[in-house]
Write a structure and sequence with these properties.
It is a single chain. Helix content is about 30%, strand content about 15%. The protein is an alpha+beta fold. It folds into 2 domains: about 100 residues, no CATH class; about 170 residues, Gyrase A, domain 2 (2-Layer Sandwich). Strands 6-7-9-8 form a 4-stranded antiparallel β-sheet. The chain is globular.
Length: about 280
C-alpha cells in the first residue's frame, strides 16, 4: 500500500501490548517479551517511513489499568424487568427493540439505551446503585465529557477503577447465545475481551479447533466454541479517565515543535496530526 499509493497519511495499528495487557494485566513481568517485539517492529516502521521523508507520530489510544471485577449491567437490568430476550432454538438473544433499556458495553464504559423514557430515572437509579459503577452521565454529563453524540446512550455508565463492563445478559448458561463461546464481534452487543482467551477448562483445545476447521472444509457447519464466559479471567481494561498521567495515553513525535508541552485532551490529537501533514 505504501509503495503503490504513497499515501499522505498512514495509520498503522500494533496490537502487541493491547491484547497482552488485557489478558494478563499491566506490569513488566507480563509484558516484557511483547515490549521487545513491539520495539523491534516500531524500529522497522520508523526507519522505513523516515527514509521516505515522512513525519512519525507514536500514539497510544489509551492506557490499560488492572481490573478484577466484571460488572454485568444487562443482567442487573434484566433482574429489574427491563431487558427483553427472544428464544431461538433454545438460545436467548437480546431483543434490543423490545427492551425498556439495555447496555452496550465497551471495557469501562457502557452506553445505556432507554427505549421507555418514562423509566429513565429508574434506570439511572439502578445503575448508580450497582456495585462497580462509579458514575452515570446524563445529557449534561455527556456534554461535559464531550461524548454527547446523537448515537450515544441516554445514559453512560463509567466503571470504578478496578471494574469493567461485560455484555452478558443471560442468567442460565444452558441458554446463552451460540455466539457467546466464539469470536463474533458483530453479534455481541458489546466488546468481549474474553475472546482473547481459550477456555482453560477445555481439554485438547487445539485438537477441537483443528476438528472444527476440518468439518468446515468438508462443508459442515462448525462453530469454534472455545472462548470462555468466565469474565473474571480479564486482568486489564480501559476507558475511564486514567488514575494518573503515567497510566494514561501518550503521544510522541519526531517533530517536537509540533507537539504542545502541556497535557493534551483527546480532541487535541486531530489538530496535532493535521499540523504534521501541513
Amino acid at each position: 500500500m505504501d509503495q503503490r499509493f504513497n499515501p499522505t497519511l498512514s495509520l498503522v495499528y500494533l496490537p502487541h501490548l493491547d491484547y497482552c495487557l488485557q489478558r494478563l494485566g499491566p506490569g513488566p513481568a507480563t509484558s516484557a517479551q511483547d515490549l521487545r517485539d513491539l520495539d523491534r517492529v516500531c524500529g522497522q516502521l520508523i526507519d522505513h517511513f523516515q527514509s521516505r521523508g515522512a513525519r512519525v507520530i507514536i500514539l497510544s489510544e489509551y492506557g490499560i489499568t488492572a481490573v478484577s471485577r466484571p460488572v454485568h449491567l444487562n443482567r442487573v437490568l434484566r433482574e429489574r424487568g427491563l431487558i427483553a430476550v427472544r428464544d431461538e432454538v433454545g438460545h436467548e438473544l437480546l431483543d434490543a427493540g423490545a427492551s425498556a433499556a439495555f447496555a452496550v458495553a465497551d471495557h469501562q464504559i457502557a452506553h445505556v439505551y432507554v427505549n421507555d423514557r418514562s423509566r429513565l430515572g429508574e434506570v439511572r437509579e439502578i445503575l448508580e446503585k450497582t456495585p462497580g459503577v462509579e458514575r452515570v452521565l446524563d445529557e449534561v454529563g455527556k456534554r461535559e465529557w464531550k461524548i454527547d453524540h446523537p448515537r450515544s446512550g441516554e445514559l453512560v455508565a463509567i466503571a470504578e477503577p478496578d471494574a469493567w463492563f461485560t455484555y452478558y445478559y443471560w442468567t442460565d448458561d444452558a441458554r446463552m447465545p451460540d455466539f457467546a463461546r466464539t469470536v463474533d464481534i458483530h453479534r455481541k452487543p458489546g466488546y468481549d475481551p474474553a475472546e482473547l482467551f481459550i477456555d482453560p477448562k477445555l481439554t485438547l483445545p487445539k485438537a477441537r479447533i483443528a476438528l472444527a476447521l476440518l468439518r468446515r472444509k468438508l462443508g459442515f457447519r462448525a462453530m469454534l466454541e472455545v472462548i470462555p464466559t468466565e469474565a473474571d479471567l480479564v486482568r486489564g481494561s480501559h476507558g475511564r479517565p486514567a488514575p494518573s498521567a503515567q497510566d494514561g495515553a501518550m503521544l510522541m513525535s519526531d517533530q517536537p515543535g509540533l507537539v504542545p508541552s502541556n497535557p493534551l485532551m483527546p480532541t487535541d490529537v486531530f489538530h496535532i496530526i493535521l499540523r504534521h501533514l501541513s
